[in-house]
Structures are given as C-alpha cells and as structure tokens.
Write a structure and sequence with these properties.
heterodimer, A: alpha/beta, four-stranded parallel beta sheet, 7 strands, 51% helix, 10% strand, B: alpha/beta, six-stranded parallel beta sheet, four-stranded mixed beta sheet, globular
Chain lengths: 243, 476
C-alpha cells in the first residue's frame, strides 16, 4: 500500500514534532509513508474565512491522487478535504475536479481512523507513563465521526492514565479565525475548557488536532497552569526507549 | 443599541454595532452568563434524554427535512392550496410582501373592529415585523400573553431566545420587573416561581376576558385542510385563540406542511427538540371559522418578508425548514456565552446567524456568519437537518465579497499565494521564527491572539526541511 502523509500546513510550519511522531509511529507499525514535497495546505483556513481557493483544492488533489491512502494528523483538515473540497470545486464550476476531490477524500484518513480502520490495530506498542486528558475536538467527533477510536488507542498505551475531562465534547473556542475575530467569546470558551483540563488532574492534554491544542496550550501557558499539550501521534509514538 | 435603517423590519439593527462588540459586552456580564448557562444546560440535558427515547430519531429527522424540502419545492402550489382550503372554511387570507405591508394590513384589520387593544401570543414572527411598535404608533395597544414575552414587554426589553424570550432574566429580576411595571402585582410578591406565575396569571386573566381581538403566530399551516396549529406550554395561547371575537394569525410562508398527516412527524420533532417534552401541553388546531364557537372573524396573513430571497438560494433555502425549536441555541457554545441580544435581530443563535443575513441581505449582517466556531453541534441536534455550519461558510464567502476588508483580503491573498508553490511555501515556513518577535503582541490579528494566549514556540526547523534532510538528502 502506497501511503502518503499530509502533515497539514500548521504541523509543517509550527509543530513538526507531531508530523515526525506520525512518521515514526507508522514506520514502527510497518507502514512507511511518503511525504510528497509539493503539498502545502488544504485551504480550510481560507474556506472558513470566506475565501474559496479552488487552486489550493486542485493542488491538493493533484499531489495526492496517485496514492492508495493519505494519512493526516488532523481531523479538522480531513473534514475539510472530505466536505469542503468537492463543494469548492463545484462552486468554481469544475465538476471533474469535484469528482477527483471526492475520490481523494474517500482515501484520506485521520490518524486514529487510519490506525484502527486501515491498519486494524488498537495497541500500537506505546509507553507513556503520565496522566493524560483527551479533548475530543469538534471536527473529529461531529464531522468525521471518529467516535472513541482515539480513547481506545490511548487506553492501549502502557503506563498512561486516562483522566476524565468534564464537558469534554464542548468546543474549546478555537474555531480558526474565530479565535481572533470573536476573541472575547473565544476566550470565555477557552477559560471553561482550561478549568476542565486543570480539574481533570492531567499533566498532559492530548488531542488529534494541533490547531485546537495551539489555542488551549497557549492559554494554559499564559496562566502557567503547568499542563502541557501533545498531539495524539506524539503519545502513540512514545516507547520505553524514547521515554 | 438603536434600530438601524435596515430592510426587513424596523426592529432589526444587525451589524450596528457588529456582533463581536455586542458579544464582548455580553461576555463581560457575569450575571447574564450565569442565567443563560443555567437555563440552556437544563434544557440541553432534558432534550438529550427525551430525544434518546426515540429509536428512530434519525429517520424522523430525515422525514422532517424531506417534508419541508417538498414544501419549499412546491411552495407556490401549496400556498394556493392552503388559501383555498382556509377560505372555504370561512377564513380570510391576506398576503404581505414585507414588514411595512404586513403592519399596515394588520393595523387596518384591528382598526376595522373598532378596538384599541389586542392580545398576542406566539409573537416571534410579529417581533420580526416590529408589529407592537407599529400598532402603538397607530394608537393600538398590544399586550403579550406568553409569560416570557410578557416579562420582556413589561421590562421594555427584547426577546433573547426563540422559545424562552426572557431566558436572560432570573427570577429576582423578573420579580423586580413585575413590581415596577405590573399595576396589579401584589406588594408582597416574592421571587418564588409559583408566586410570579400566579401574579402573571391574575394580570393576564383580565386581559383575556376583556380582549376582543387577538394576534397570533402559528407553528404549522396545513395546505390540505387550511388549518393552523399553535403548540405551547401555558394555555395562555389557548385563551388567545378561543376567547376573542377576531383572530389574526401571522404566518411565515415557510410554515406550511402538505398534509394533516405530516403533523405526526412534526409533533414528535418539535416538543422533544424544543422543550425536551414528549408532547406540548397545549396543541391548538383550528380551521377557519366554527359558527358559534371561538373567533367568528378569522384572518390569516401569509408573510414573505425576505423569505423568497432565501428560497432562491439553492443551498441557503434549507434554513427555511426551520421549525423554531431552538435546539441549536441551547447547545451552541457561542450563544451560551453571549445570549441572544448580541445577534442584534429577532432570530439569535446559530439559526439566526444563517437566517438573518439571508432575510435582510448579508451586507447588513456581515458579522453574523462569523459568530460561530463551526463546532457543528447545531447541525447534530437540528430536527430538520439544517446544515448550519456549511451555510455559515457559504455566507462567509458572500460576506467577504459584499463587505471588503482590505487588510484581511491582503493577508489571505498573501497566504494563498505562498501556498500555491512548493518553493514559496518552503521559504514561507522558514519564517516561523519571526513569531518570537511577536510574543508580546503585534498588529491585528496577532494582538487578538496574544490577548489571552501565548504564541507557540517556533520550531528549529520545519517538518519538510527535516524530511528532506532525513530522507532525500537534498534541500527542497
């Protein structure tokens, strides 16, 4: 199986550790990935801000069309690829592109979906002796329907104690440019999420989207909460050797 | 906040001030946040429980969406069918293009009876028209009889929720309003909910017995039979609909259902989604005039007021499926923190954010489509499957085209440019360390980010540079 990694623009530019962890994890599981260097961004930030960039959709589709599967360490970007790429292509009047976008979307998997559904594993052989709370990001639950796959994967990690997060399914207030366009509401949502994280007693907050974690983590650092954020891939890639 | 000159009704003042500024003020009001959070979490919990009882809930949602889509596809035919059936049973059917026309028509219908007072129930649609104020200017006094609407009216306030218009007030505040504004309120009134309800009941009972004209809305209009249905909890609606001699019902044209039998779907969807009840305590259903029983003069005003604009948009028209249950408000994390007033229009919350810009024109409500984190909870609970997040995104596209923001356009233009080529993008991501200079803030949007959060520590090298070093040996 010829599998490509789409790191997402955010991980590529700001959080390479999440991308490297994804590569390490998949190699350990016997599934090497390729990183097509022509990839850039799925365009979600533009789309959700009202700028429909059909060129970015076309670029993404061209780069990833030849692969059997595309794995992405972000539920939000997969949701955009699945739901918004065909819509933007149609909006631009390009039916052929829409069809190709749908085909690529059908072979594109969020990391936890890829591990559980494609590789068929819930035990990835990870070791991470810490108290971890998991934040189910909105797009992973409501747009992709990943269900409890990430939690199942985390429960399979040796040494990891999965802490209960109150009102876990409530949005953290990131929402892309929402975080700056409606900063007061975003901050109020963030404050409630941080309260829940701190009350959970976790040392680490984990999620499948680095974007939401950038927001929650930035807030936690601002108040010196002492809780770190890690992408799901970073925890699943950890082993005794690395720890 | 003063009403702005916006088409679609004199009470709409959207975008002036814009949503983020209204929201900032609301968020700072801790009493308001407590009131709304308390109320919405209660309704949310109850809705979840009651919806969970129905094994075929998803099929019901699909049926609801399909029936409404059928109505919208054949709306012209269904409207004429409704008119024919209602007229055949003795109702008088009127058509109103916009708020001005509707208000003038309703005022003239009231004036023709010689009365100077009307009682009202199910007032959401007439709120959209600014009807109470319009009647007041013509010397006609309107009294709201829904308990929450009464609280809002006595408090010289505005509704902040589709179903619970006074959701932003707690019982202590309601007591104060009653003591101040209700002439027959007992002097020793406490804030005990039963006492408050009793005071309102005594106050309203007099109105019910005196009134000769009532103005109502409707939840559903049945094309097949010409019937209207009002679902409510208090029984005050039943009083309004049965006691006066003249009944004027203002009905948005999207309220139609093809057949009587379709109620079997909607009378399950509505109460479970709205109040979290299996059935509404009062379902009042009437068809034209019944000689010797109830109102002997029945008027129905079919209202457009921007709805045909919404209908014309292929994606946007699904907003007209809305049955005003308010489930989307009660689960919305934004609404929970801002309340309804921040949305600056009759319809608040997620449905308001997609309906208002379509009703009044996105150029008049350009900040509303952005009043969402796109968390998707609204779509999940909507009983008629309105894809609110997708509609919001589409309206954002319309908004940035209708109202240009040069700096923002430039920023997104530059980002898209850098993402259209491998070399450009490779160079762009190497700029990440610049973020260190912005740690203490910078121009917008950095300032808004750093107001409450730290920027991430930029990495030593980008993912792609690492990959090239590890795997290809050559520089990208």
């Amino acid at each position: 199986m010829n599998v490509a990694l789409f790191t997402t623009c955010l991980v590529d530019a700001l959080f390479p550790d999440a991308g490297r962890a994804t590569v390490r994890l998949l190699e350990r599981l016997g599934q090497p990935v390729e990183f097509p260097l022509e990839q850039t961004c799925c365009g979600q930030m533009h789309t959700n801000s009202g700028y429909f960039e059909v060129d970015l959709v076309r670029r993404h589709v061209n780069v990833f069309s030849e692969y059997d599967a595309v794995v992405v360490p972000s539920a939000s970007c997969v949701a955009s690829i699945r739901h918004q790429h065909p819509m933007i292509a149609r909006d631009a009047g390009d039916e052929a592109l829409a069809a190709r976008a749908e085909a690529v979307a059908g072979r594109t998997y969020e990391l936890s979906q890829f591990l559980v559904d494609v590789l068929g594993t819930e035990h990835v052989g990870a070791y991470f002796p810490h108290r971890v709370a998991y934040h189910p990001t909105c797009h992973s639950v409501r747009l992709l329907g990943v269900g409890d796959r990430p939690q199942r994967l985390l429960r399979g990690v040796r040494g990891l104690e999965l802490m209960e997060l109150e009102r876990a399914d409530e949005c953290c207030g990131f929402g892309g440019t929402f975080a700056v366009k409606n900063v007061d509401v975003s901050a109020a949502m963030l404050a409630d999420k941080m309260d829940a994280v701190i009350d959970s007693g976790a040392e680490i907050l984990c999620a499948g989207d680095r974007s939401c974690l950038m927001h929650i983590g930035g807030g936690l650092r601002r108040i010196r909460a002492g809780v770190e954020t890690l992408h799901l891939a970073e925890i699943l890639a950890s082993t005794e050797r690395a720890a | 906040m003063s009403p702005g000159p916006v088409p679609g009704g004199e009470t709409i003042w959207v975008d002036d001030p814009p949503f983020p500024r209204n929201a900032a003020r609301a968020v700072a009001d801790s009493q308001l946040r407590r009131n709304i959070r308390g109320a919405t979490s209660t309704i949310r919990e109850r809705r979840g429980r009651i919806v969970g009882e129905v094994p075929d809930w998803q099929e019901l949602r699909s049926a609801g969406a399909a029936i409404k889509d059928e109505v919208l596809r054949g709306l012209d035919g269904y409207l004429e069918q409704f008119e024919g059936a209602a007229v055949a049973r003795g109702a008088q059917v009127h058509w109103a293009r916009d708020a001005e026309e509707a208000n003038a028509l309703i005022a003239s219908l009231v004036a023709a009876t010689g009365e100077r007072e009307v009682i009202k129930v199910k007032s959401l649609t007439t709120e959209e028209l600014g009807l109470d104020a319009a009647l007041g200017r013509r010397g006609i006094e309107a009294y709201e009889t829904d308990l929450a609407e009464l609280i809002v009216q006595l408090g010289h306030d505005r509704p902040s929720h589709v179903l619970v218009p006074a959701i932003h007030k707690n019982r202590a505040e309601i007591r104060e309003i009653f003591l101040r504004e209700m002439p027959d309120a007992p002097a020793d009134l406490s804030d005990d909910p039963q006492q408050l309800a009793e005071a309102a009941r005594r106050h309203l009972r007099r109105k019910f017995l005196d009134a000769r004209v009532a103005i109502s809305g409707a939840n559903f209009a049945i094309a097949e039979t010409g019937s209207l249905l009002v679902a409510e909890s208090e029984g005050n609606g039943r009083m309004c609909l049965t006691l006066p001699r003249t009944l004027i019902s203002v009905v948005g044209i999207e309220k139609l259902l093809p057949t009587f039998r379709d109620l079997e779907v909607f009378l399950q969807l509505l109460p479970r989604s709205s109040t979290g009840e299996r059935m509404n305590p009062y379902n009042s259903l009437w068809t034209g005039v019944t000689p010797g029983d109830g109102p002997q003069e029945v008027h129905i005003v079919l209202l457009d007021n921007g709805r045909t604009n919404v209908l014309a948009d292929e994606l946007g028209r699904q907003a007209l499926r809305c049955i005003r249950c308010s489930a989307c408000l009660n689960v919305c994390p934004v609404y929970e923190r801002t309340g309804g007033h921040a949305y600056g229009a009759t319809y608040p919350g997620p449905i308001g954010a997609v309906l208002t810009p379509q009703l009044v024109g996105v150029e008049h409500a350009s900040t509303l489509p952005f009043a969402s984190s796109l968390c998707g909870y609204c779509y999940e609970v909507c009983p008629v499957k309105i894809d609110i997040p997708s509609l919001l995104v589409k309206l954002r596209r319309d908004a940035v085209r209708a109202v240009r923001h040069r700096a923002q356009d430039a920023l997104f233009g530059a980002a898209a440019f850098s993402m259209r080529g491998r070399r450009r993008w490779t160079r762009a991501v190497r700029l990440a360390p610049v973020m260190r200079l912005l740690r203490r803030g910078g121009p917008p949007p950095v300032a808004q980010w750093t107001a409450v959060r730290d920027l991430p520590e930029p990495p030593q090298e980008s993912f792609r540079d690492w990959w090239v070093r590890e795997h290809d040996g050559a520089r990208g």
